[in-house]
Design brief:
The structure is a single chain. Helix 2 runs antiparallel to helix 14, helix 3 packs antiparallel against helix 5 and helix 4 packs antiparallel against helix 7. This protein is mostly helical. The chain folds into 2 domains: about 190 residues, MFS general substrate transporter like domains (Growth Hormone, Chain: A, Up-down Bundle), CATH 1.20.1250.20; about 210 residues, Growth Hormone, Chain: A (Up-down Bundle). Its main location: membrane. It is found in: Cell membrane. Keywords: Cell membrane, Membrane, Transmembrane, Transmembrane helix, Transport. It is a multi-pass membrane protein.
Length: about 400
């Protein structure tokens, strides 16, 4: 691992991703805080997430096939500097006292269009600058740094808002995104891609759909995730008013609550890496989501902040256990030449419920209460898992991996 930090190109990419991760975390934190501080509306919190997630999902779906045709370094720089320029709007208007809520919606849409370009371009760029025998270690460092920024960012943002102001968070995130782009400029461009006939996005997406005929269990897992992510999409925008209004917390405590979820994800990743691969994947995957539903009900029930922290940690831990096993399931069963296309369909299935959840969750919380919303969301997750548990198709989660890839290709 030491030799990677002697590689100038990798070090610049590593520092750029660290700055990008901090800027992105601060951006989410600042937008959420500003919207709720200006409007006091739970519906507005849901709608601001909706305006971010819709363009985010669309870009993730459609940009994948084209990223291989563009210079990945330039794509990353564009993503960083475009987002940094967009956040100049609230950073300038807020001290002048003329910032309005609609400005934040414009920012949210613009960020939703640019942010999803960075990560896939970065992952592809790593393969351009590192030899194959260094990829695993390089990815480990980059992923670990990203998780660290996700863990520290909300807490740091909360401290800055409590001790100073949200303007400081805005200026730091702009600087971080700007520095990230400058670091990337010092690296070489992507390796020149071979000029070859490219299939249209529609053809690639259609081929991804056809794979689900070979493994229909993956389709039904995707439908299940659509429902689960509907609940997550409804809950995520409500965490700020939940901490500040329901539990009487501060900006720092909201940041700590968000960091507890990330810490749970780190813990779940370590736990999954230390344990052997489960023999009963169905029990682990559905059981993790079942416990996640119970923890939602726990958030609805408790009036103690420290207990909410424990529940948030638990949600992150069990969410990542499910995600790791789900990703492994795909990696084991999807042929290499179809992964991009199948994953495009996976993104559509898994994330389609998030924007609808964000919109409806805000309306429900406004009409009733956040604790009742969390209780309903927890029951949705629990009942979904109970239904899936009783369906024979989910027994296929425990099937042995088909080693003969040729059989899969012939089926397609």
């Amino acid at each position: 691992m030491k030799e990677l930090f002697l590689d100038r190109k990798f070090v610049f990419l590593w520092l750029a991703q660290a700055a990008s991760g901090l800027g992105s975390t601060f951006a989410t934190f600042a937008i959420s805080w500003l919207v709720y501080d200006m409007t006091g509306s739970k519906m507005a919190m849901g709608s601001i997430w909706l305006t971010f997630m819709l363009p985010n999902i669309i870009i993730q779906m459609f940009a994948g096939p084209y990223l291989d045709r563009w210079d990945r370094k330039k794509v990353m720089i564009f993503s960083e500097w475009f987002r940094g320029a967009v956040f100049l709007l609230p950073a300038i208007l807020l001290p002048m006292g003329v910032l309005e809520a609609w400005h934040l919606y414009v920012v949210s849409i613009a960020v939703g269009l640019a942010q999803p370009l960075f990560y896939p371009a970065s992952m592809a760029y790593v393969a351009d600058i590192l030899p194959k025998d260094k990829l695993t270690k390089g990815n480990s460092i980059l992923e670990g740094t990203g998780q660290l920024m996700t863990l520290l960012g909300p807490t740091l943002g909360g401290i800055m808002i409590s001790a100073f102001s949200v303007e400081l968070v805005l200026f730091i995130l702009i600087i971080a995104l700007g520095v990230s782009g400058m670091l990337l400029m010092m690296n070489p461009s992507s390796k020149k891609q071979r000029v070859e006939q490219k299939e249209s996005w529609f053809i690639q997406f259609k081929e991804g759909l056809q794979f689900y005929r070979v493994y229909p269990v993956l389709f039904w897992v995707g439908i299940m995730m659509m429902i689960i992510n509907f609940s997550s999409g409804a809950a995520q925008p409500m965490f700020l008013p939940y901490i500040t209004d329901e539990l009487g917390g501060t900006a720092f405590q909201y940041g700590l609550f968000t960091s507890a979820f990330s810490l749970g994800m780190v813990g779940g990743s370590l736990l999954t890496g230390l344990l052997k691969e489960p023999k009963n994947r169905k029990r682990v995957m559905l059981g993790s989501l079942f416990i996640d539903g119970l923890l939602f009900i726990g958030l609805a029930w408790t009036s103690y902040y420290w207990l909410a922290l424990v529940f948030s940690f638990g949600q992150g831990l069990f969410a990542i256990i499910f995600n790791i096993n789900n990703t492994t399931l795909y990696q084991r069963r999807v042929p290499e030449h179809l992964r991009g296309r199948v994953f495009s369909v996976r993104i559509l299935l898994a994330q389609a419920g998030i924007p609808f959840g964000a919109a409806l969750g805000g309306m429900f919380a406004e009409a009733f209460s956040i604790p009742l919303l969390f209780a309903v969301l927890g029951m949705i997750i629990i009942f979904t898992n109970l239904i899936c548990w009783r369906q024979p198709i989910f027994e296929k989660l425990n099937d042995h991996v088909v080693e003969d890839r040729g059989e899969q290709k012939a089926s397609l």
